[in-house]
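Data card: per-record layout.
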Amino acid sequence: MNEIKSSYCRCLYYSANALARSMSRMADEAFAKTGIAPSYAFLLMAVNRKPGVQPGELAETMMLSPSTVTRLIEKLEAKGFLVRRQEGKSVFVSPTLSAQELNQDLMTAWQGLYDRYVSVLGEETARQLTTDIFSATEKLDTSD
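The structure for this 144-residue chain is written out next.
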């Protein structure tokens, strides 16, 4: 390993971003056959799982900012996958029939993504890495 790469790979910021890029490539490939980008796919799966969910809950669940979730919802609404219903000051998001029909393909793509990285990393390493990364994320997010 060259000296520059060696010094960067010991940096959490560098390593986490390199991992994110690798996982994003894999996820893009896994979800390509659905016609839905991974970030949209995960939001659709969440809404399919809980029709009538509020955007704030989606933001918390997905660990995204409310404005990012709103943007994703707007795009998926424009594509005919989601509908928003307002009751007073509250907004509720539900899947359309198209989103519900696509759900099994999304779940299959997600499983394909999992199978692919497990085949490379091994199941125990993949599970432990996922647990460690999620735990670190929660700790870093609550340290602000």
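Known properties of this structure: Helices lie at 3-9, 12-31, 38-49, 55-62, 66-78, 97-121, 123-142. Residues 97-121 form the longest helix (25 residues).

See the next section for split statistics.
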